[in-house]
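TICKET #2291
ISSUE: user wants both folds in one file
ATTACHMENT 1:
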Amino acid sequence: MRASLLQVAVDQGESVDSRRRRVASLVRDQAGADLVVLPELWTTGAFAYEEFASEAEPLTGPTYEAMAKAASDAGVWLHAGSIPERATPEGDFAAAGGDLRAGADPASDADPASAEGPLYNTSLVFSPSGELAATYRKIHRFGFDKGEAVLMGAGRELVTVRLPDTVLGLATCYDLRFPELFRGLVDAGAETLVIPAGWPERRRSHWTLLAQARAVENQSFVLACGTAGTHAGVPQAGHSIVVDPWGEVLAEAGAGEEVLTVEFDPAKVGVTREQFPALKDRLLGLDPPRR
């Protein structure tokens, strides 16, 4: 299986429309790949908090349209990174293929300040025909008491996507720090964990360490795609990385804009889990400590 991670540089001097066209062209250049992955919030920049509301778009907005066409033109599965989504009931309905998404209450967690609907950090995955195959609203929001944590609602739903050769488990950036999310994805059948991010340079060592840890503990491939450039004054780590189920780094990008392409065998997940069946030894529902 061939995957291409597009480590896009986000320059605040480039308009969102211009970057959207440029990234669509980069996706089309990956014809022949099986899977293409984009970073988190590449339209605005993950730390450009003041732009989230003004650049937010409905699920089936301009980024959806551009990425659906690019995926179809290239004939690839496309994880189109994430966008600042302005939620609407119609968007929730469309994302679920006709049924309101489980746990999707647009008013439950998001800032109600906007009458137009709350914001979410939402990933979109397209099939090679350009159909929307899945969406994922980021569960763990970064910022503690500011930024994304107060401007965006929290997702509630684990999401997997079945490809011909593997099952993707979806997570985004800060999610990487929460191993229980990935255990849930593995229990749901995930074999390849895909993590778009806007990870800051000052914590780059955590990025690499956590990507390898998630691969080893879940005996899964990890495809972690970051951004380059500087978001609202915050230098980005870059260093997108692909890790195999034993924790071996198969490929790693540098700091600048780059296309990181790697060939890997999805069957290695099953072989690893059979040869070293650690997941079978999990003990759940343990008694609490004695007082």
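ATTACHMENT 2:
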Amino acid sequence: MRNPKVLLLDEPFGALDAFTRGHMQEVLLDIWRRNKTMMIFVTHDIDEAVFLGNRVVIMDPRPGTIRGVIPIDLPYPRKNPAARSRNFGAAY
């Protein structure tokens, strides 16, 4: 499908290594910037949700009710969480 009005993404990067995941996040943001496609992105990764989203919906488990909606008022472009800590582990 070439230009969908809505993309539904359920943990699309969950099985990827950190480098590929970061790259795919950037690709997804580029699609959003160019096409303004609405995306519903399911993730358990809070950094990923904040990096990609303009609002985060928190859900309770079973029966899947919405606990809250948090607006993310950070400007784009945002710093990718995978690139945020390049020296991680250097002190260990």
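RESOLUTION: both attachments delivered.
EXTRA DETAIL ON ATTACHMENT 2: Helices lie at 18-35, 46-52, 81-84.
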